[in-house]
Write a structure and sequence with these properties.
Strand order of the largest sheet: 2-1-3-4-5-6
CATH architecture of the largest domain: 3-Layer(aba) Sandwich
Strand content: 5-15%
Largest sheet: 6 strands, parallel
CATH class of the largest domain: Alpha Beta
Radius of gyration: 17 Å
Number of strands: 6
Number of domains: 2
Helix content: 40-55%
Order of helices and strands: EHEHEHEHEHEHHHH
Number of helices: 9
Length: about 220
């Protein structure tokens, strides 16, 4: 499909602020028709069953199920629709997992809108699989390297914390970047270690990214 004005879009994100901002931006810039907005996996599935869509723009981990569930639901319910994943995580492993699940693009939410919209439009036009240029190189990864199944038990905020841990940030810096308290970060880190069965934070990151633990120790 190349007629952007006739593109029917489903927006899926736990944040109403994000979906509303995307709706306005997509309509103003490319005249996309947003035919559905969902804030949970269940809502997204209902929209996919009841409304014809050409494009799904979804968060990596929508509330209500494990990561990428909406990508997989789209592949099953609307196989002709293209899926763009938006994420806070600068993770080549998660980008690979998104493409393996059926997405055509993995883009970072922190990107300027002026950069995001052309990439979304290119996805509609049938561009090859796209990964945000700021995501780590995929060259060192195997062809298929999905995150461990235990990741499905992490909450969206725990994913955010884990993504910052993967950058080697300590609790104080993570708290600053995510606008939460140090105690909240500590609580999330403990939950991440427990759910992943990791010995420590370095082990948790290594489990996800397949890297040497020493590379991710936050001092």
């Amino acid at each position: 499909m190349t007629d952007l004005a006739s593109t029917r879009v489903l927006l899926v994100d736990g944040s109403q602020l994000i979906t509303e901002g995307l709706r306005i931006s997509l309509h103003r810039t490319h005249c996309f028709r947003v035919v559905g907005i969902a804030h949970t996996v269940a809502d997204a599935a209902r929209c996919l069953r009841s409304v014809l869509v050409d494009l799904v723009v979804t968060d990596f981990d929508v509330p209500g199920a494990g990561p990428l569930r909406t990508v997989r639901d789209t592949a099953q319910l609307r196989p002709n629709a293209r899926v763009v994943v938006l994420s806070n995580a600068d993770s080549s492993s998660w980008a690979r997992a998104a493409l393996d699940a059926g997405a055509v693009a993995y883009l970072l939410k922190t990107s300027p809108v002026a950069e995001l919209l052309p990439l979304i439009a290119a996805a509609v036009r049938g561009a090859p699989a796209t990964i945000d240029a700021r995501v780590g190189s995929l060259a060192r990864l195997p062809a298929r390297m999905p995150p461990p199944a235990a990741l499905g038990r992490l909450s969206a905020r725990e994913f955010d914390v884990l993504a910052e841990m993967a950058k080697g940030l300590d609790n104080a810096r993570i708290a600053q970047r995510l606008f939460i308290s140090n105690d909240t970060v500590k609580t999330h880190v403990k939950a991440i270690l427990r759910k992943l069965g990791a010995r420590d934070r370095a082990h948790a990151v290594a489990m996800v990214l397949g890297e040497s633990s020493e590379a991710f120790v936050a001092t």
